[in-house]
Amino acid sequence: MWDFEHGDAAKDFEISYTLPSACAAALAANEADIGIIPAITYAEIPGLVILPNVAIAAKDHVRSILLISRKPLEEIHTVAADTSSRTSVAFEE
């Protein structure tokens, strides 16, 4: 977003900052032209195209998900998750 905030890239765009899940909802509702979305959402919204040479990346571990429990893993039967996260909580039933 640096180019949009400090360069000339933003002059042709209206930019709004929100959660990636809300960006995905705006794309699905045709309320946005581009958005930073959860990876899982790419498979859920027909007609999306990945923009080339654009990414959010890290050179090292990011710890975006940290699972913490007072119980041993084998005793865990439920997990509470942030409802704004789509990729991190994606599962198959």
Helix and strand arrangement:
Elements (H helix, E strand, L loop, with lengths): L1 H5 L13 H9 L10 H4 L51
Which properties best describe this structure?
93 residues; 0% strand; single chain; 3 helices; elongated; mainly alpha
Note down, in words, how this protein is organized:
The protein has one domain. 4% of the residues are buried. 19% of the residues lie in helices and 0% in strands. It is elongated, with a radius of gyration of 17 Å. The chain has 93 residues and is mainly α. The chain has 3 helices and no strands. The mean pLDDT is 81. The N and C termini lie far apart (36 Å).
Order of helices and strands: HHH
User: What sort of overall outline do the alpha carbons produce when their principal axes are compared?
Assistant: elongated
* Count of spatially separate domains: 1
Average pLDDT over all residues: 81
Helix and strand content put the structural class at: mainly alpha
Distance between the termini: 36 Å
- Relative helix content: 10-25%
Q: The biggest beta sheet, please?
A: none
Instruction: Name the beta content range.
Output: under 5%
- Continuous helix count: 3
Uncertain segments are: none
